[in-house]
Specification:
The chain is of the alpha/beta class and 332 residues long. Helix content is 32%, strand content 23%. The chain contains 12 helices and 12 strands.
């Protein structure tokens, strides 16, 4: 796999009055050209912070404290703001969770699209900018594009606002699109439309996509590979079909069991017991150990390495150690 983005040993912390919050703790992964990678985890797992780190938009009091983020071989960590602005948007684009807070309410959709286009194509004349804006809205599946350019965000539905955000993200023809929970607060029908649009655009443009979500049902259909995060660390990673068919970490198994199905409509919904990790007082070992029903003494005291669980499949769980005698016990 040719690598577009390479993240090695990334650490991002937030320095609060209460102490250091290690939001991303020694995370490494790669994204190939034209690959769709899904990053899954519950709130507070570090998946969004890792994505914001890539485009250097981690809010204070947070900052990158270690590791590297290489985009086509260039390390983005420590890059000067002027140099980062040349890459952000043009090479790396981002779709935020809530388009209503990402769009400026006092400017028309057209004005905001024009600004993005002129930033990436400063030599474009006024007519070229407008034509490109109409092309982008049409590409994003918005009808009556000339009329829409004159409208304000409040005149758009939630789904249309997200389509407008996708159009803006595509303005610079990026090589990598980071989509952070792009279907949050949208109804199921519109969610499917937005995801199908992203899938269509990815195939047409061959851009790489990192899809961040808490919904394993979404990554099941739209991704090539999945990373499962918890407590700022990667718990498991594999190709999508392999991970869903053969989950090898108790946390992944718990996530899959918590997805309701029609067959289970009369049974109680499965949940992962316990409370999410307190990153101010994180365990020394595996962050999932306080909630894991198969927790061993070593799990509390030492973070496990990544054990092979299949072809291209790795899992950070001591139960996979060849001497544990417990491999696969949690799957039954």
């Amino acid at each position: 796999m040719d690598t577009l983005l390479s993240i090695e040993n990334l650490r991002v912390s937030f320095f609060t009055k209460e102490g250091e919050v290690k939001a991303v703790n020694d995370v490494s992964y790669r994204v190939g050209y034209s690959e769709v990678l899904g990053i899954v985890g519950e709130s507070g797992s570090g998946k969004s912070v890792s994505a914001f780190s890539i485009i250097n938009l981690v809010d204070r009091p947070g900052r990158i404290v270690g590791g590297s983020i290489k985009f086509e071989g260039k390390d983005l960590v420590g890059l000067r703001a002027k140099e980062m602005r040349k890459i952000r948007g043009k090479e790396l684009a981002f779709i935020f969770q809530d388009p209503m807070t990402s769009l400026n309410p006092v400017f028309t959709i057209g004005n905001q699209l024009y600004e993005a286009i002129k930033l990436y194509y400063p030599d474009y004349k006024k007519e070229q900018v407008k034509r490109r804006a109409m092309e982008l809205l049409d590409l994003a599946g918005i009808n009556e594009v000339e009329k829409r350019l004159e409208q304000y965000p409040f005149e758009f539905s939630g789904g249309m606002r997200q389509r407008a955000m996708i159009a803006m993200a595509l303005a610079g023809s990026p090589k990598l699109l980071l989509a952070d929970e792009p279907t949050t607060a949208l109804d199921v029908t519109i969610q499917a439309q937005i995801l199908e649009l992203l899938e269509k655009l990815q195939k047409e443009t061959n851009m790489s996509v990192v899809l961040i979500t808490h919904d394993l049902g979404i990554v099941n259909k739209y991704t090539d590979r999945i990373i499962v995060m918890y407590g700022g660390k990667i718990m498991e990673t594999a190709k999508t079909d392999e991970l869903l068919a053969n989950p090898s970490h108790p946390y992944t198994v718990g996530l899959l069991k918590s997805i309701p199905t029609l067959e289970d409509k009369n049974s109680e919904l499965s949940t992962i017991k316990g409370s999410p990790i307190d990153l101010l007082n994180a365990p020394i070992g595996c962050p999932f150990s306080p909630r894991c029903e198969y927790c061993m003494k070593i799990c509390i005291n030492k973070m496990p390495p990544y054990f092979p669980a299949g072809e291209g499949h790795q899992s950070a769980c001591w139960l996979l150690h060849p001497d544990s005698g417990a491999e696969g016990v949690w799957k039954h």
